[in-house]
Amino acid sequence: MDITRDQIDDLNAIVKVAITKEDYSDKVDKILTDYRKTANIPGFRKGHVPMGLVKKQYGKAVLVDEVNKLLQDSLNKYLTEEKLDVLGNPLPKAQDDLDWDAEDFSFEFELGLAPAFDVDLKTKKAITQYHIIADDKMIDEQVERIAKQYGKLVSQDEVTEESEVTGVFKNEERELENEVTLTLDKVKGKRNLNKFVGAKAGDTLELKTKGLFNDDHDLINFLKVEHDEAHDLDIEVTFTIKEANLREAAELNQELFDKLFREGVVTSEEEMRAKIKEDAEKQFAQQADQRLLNDITEHLVENTKFDLPAEFLTKWIQATGENNLTDEQASEEYAKSEKGLRYQLIEGKIINNNDLQVSYDELKEFAKKYVRMQMAQFGQQDPDEEVLENISGRVLSNQEEAKRLSEQIMSEKLVNLYKEKANLKTKEVTYENFVKEVYE
What we know:
Main location: cytoplasm
Oligomer: single chain
Domain Trigger factor C-terminal: 270-387
EC number: 5.2.1.8
GO molecular function: peptidyl-prolyl cis-trans isomerase activity
Distance between the termini: 62 Å
Keywords: Chaperone, Isomerase, Rotamase
């Protein structure tokens, strides 16, 4: 067997694989001999079928199968030994004149090669690293929400602006009928609000869905309509009130503190506020890190310049796609995927250059932390270590889940690397201002 490479340019090459009879004949003969022992052909006893008949009936199929196996194995070995960084997979060149009755064969494959480039994390323009704080306003609102959440409901004779109203939305023509409980801070505009305020149990309100709520997405839950329909929904509905209640805030005492944070962890309102601030800012830090990762990713893709074997990759997409694509469709698919491919190459370069790896021990500890957080949501604050070991083991036995957790760890490692090496400027903001600045 002989394998050679013609380097067309830095990004494209042709690999030629020449296979001779000596490369495959022993394997083919052995398989046909085994076939002969087990072949069940009318007119012959098992094991006594003439080899010529076996070759005539099975020879070409076995030859094709073995040559293809040999071709694939030798090509993979060659790419590994030559340390060729291939994009996609080798594409076999069409051979309309391939003669399987010949003894020697020659095959050609097109290769798309990864470009050589450098990544500079020290950007000229500093990238913003957000430090999100929980301000007094946010903490006050959170304390108020908690007090109401753990408070008790007091029945009201009529609806007030502070009421929790239970009733049934209905539209007979659309066959909509859904019982909900809502607070009036969701209702948009004085005109709509005034229809609720002062109403009593048994009253039926006539409403229009357009402009009824501050957030059109509330229509999804309140009327059980699809997301795409909610934004432009403009129909008349009735709302029949079943009851109105006022949620009386719970007292901020030790009983409430113990429910929220486990017994004895918090012993005063001041400590409660400090704990709310600490927990909120931990969550904010994750959002800030994700934003930093996104911003640096965008910057690196835009500013790390290198060429790609676009023509090869377009052909590869066309050849390997589930659906038959025209040249134009394949070009469109490549254009959609190019940015993602560029970042994969950049990220791979950063990971290799900085020797970032995820060990099994790291993955295991991360899985246990993930399980612990999940259990805490259901009130299990201190799970037994053996329970954590068993559940995290089951989590990691799922390859998809293990891959997802491994990617999360690598993202954390990348963020920490960027914080250490990238040109960053820190900006302290409240969560409200962070949302306005970043997402609006």
